[in-house]
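Aim 2, interim progress: modelling of the zinc ion-bound target.
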Amino acid sequence: MEPQRSRYEMAAPVILVIAVVAIVFQHLSVMGELSSLKKMIVPIHEWVTCEPQPNSIGEPTLAEHPSLEEELTVAMNGVPVEQFMAYGSPVQDLRKEFAYKYEKAHKAKIEEIGHCEACGITAKELKRRGERPLETHHVKSCKVIFDEGLDHSLVYDPANLIVLCRVGGKGCHWKEGHFSRSWAESNPNVRRDSARHLKQVQSKL
Ligand SMILES: [Zn+2]
Ligand SMILES: [Zn+2]
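Predicted structure of the complex, ligand included:
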């Protein structure tokens, strides 16, 4: 009986090794299946949970300058509708008119100036570098125009616009136009500060 028992004892580790190898193989094949399953699940998951980008639904991200429409919403807040009715146009129509005239002034201004008024970079160079195109910024902001009861045509007056860049994301528009602080805050001395900066840039050339 003795030798038989020892044969069993010898067989035990072999069986154990075979069992471990079998388990590992089983595990590996399951892992293989899982990873191929994962490859299928991930695109479906991404497709189902893909959220629209802020811009595609027209909402500004933190890095965005508010649109004229948004600026006007803030500026006109608290201004009685009757005041606009006096112009023979309800607020909505007036905003559309502003937006239309501003768009024209914005294009004309960029065409006329052709470079950032604070650092001198040209529209062409921005395009070459893959940067955002030149923007126009209100010298007297919409909020100031409405709060101080200034002539509303300043909203779309090219003389009230300054051309600034968005190099590196926020660029001179953010620095000179908004104190590098907040898109809601407007620098009333943007012309002076931009001209000063341009002089510094040019003196280094
Ligand atoms: Zn610039
Ligand atoms: Zn601005």
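The two ends are 101 Å apart (CA to CA). The chain has eight helices and two strands.
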